Amino acid sequence: MHNTVLNLIGNTPLVESKKLNTNPNVKLYFKLEGHNPGGSVKDRPALRMIKEGLERGDFSKDSQLIEATSGNTGIGLAMVASMYDLAIELVMPENSTVERVQTMRAYGAKVTLTSADIGIEGARDYAKQKVDKEGFIMLNQFGNDDNWKAHYETTGPEIWKDTKGQVTHFISSMGTTGTITGTSTYLKEQNPDIKIVGVQPEEGAKIPGIRKWAPEYVPEIYNPNKVDDILYVNEKEAMAMAKRLAKEEGIFSGMSSGGAATIALRLASQLKSGTIVSIVCDRGDRYLSSHLFE
Fold first, then answer.
1. Catalytic one among 27, 31, 42, 149?
2. Residues of the chain with pLDDT under 70
3. DSSP-derived pairing of the beta strands 169-173 and 137-138
4. Is 42 a catalytic residue?
């Protein structure tokens, strides 16, 4: 796969906050994962899960792949699968934004919508039933080590290089936990004093892309030893910050990025000094049909 759109995955920009961060002794950088060709941080694991799976012989071009997704992973998988001529079915809750559904279908994927009442957990259960009863092969982003290894090999090294090794805090919203697990593993190898902060929704808050899983759905790849602290945001904070990112920093993103930025700014106001990197995991244009930017 040389000289294709897949070569554009990774090496995303790191930009400094010029307005939101008002602490002169702290540098706050946003890593713009929306610059990946599929529009999100999930392009990284999508590529590795398919590429490595094919090379290991976990599946072939004759296989029928399936994956449950809240959106971004599905888009990344649909894009990568199209380049490898693979058939894939993506399962997501019916209340997902129309932009996400249409993007996956544009790449040629089959999209199955499950009841909004059972959420992403229900989508995961549906995909597992197809594996058990119909012979589908699930990429399983929640338990596939290629998910976090993609960030160990790319996201972490990019942050270390672009901050010239000065990063002191890494902030990431937690969904599948691949981003925080892989990036933490790499950064801690370079400097064990770097603080890794995960972001989860407050009790009852619904923030697309950020999850606080019930025990039976906690991703198998999650290693709590990789996260130094977990801080919480509510829906109102995440929405307000997504709007501020666009208006004040020119960064157009979704609500989960707003949640991470909320925590990053909270930390920036408390630290005496430091260099914070916060993941902006996707672009705001896939939320235009939602109430986020009304």
1. 42
2. 1-2
3. unpaired
4. yes
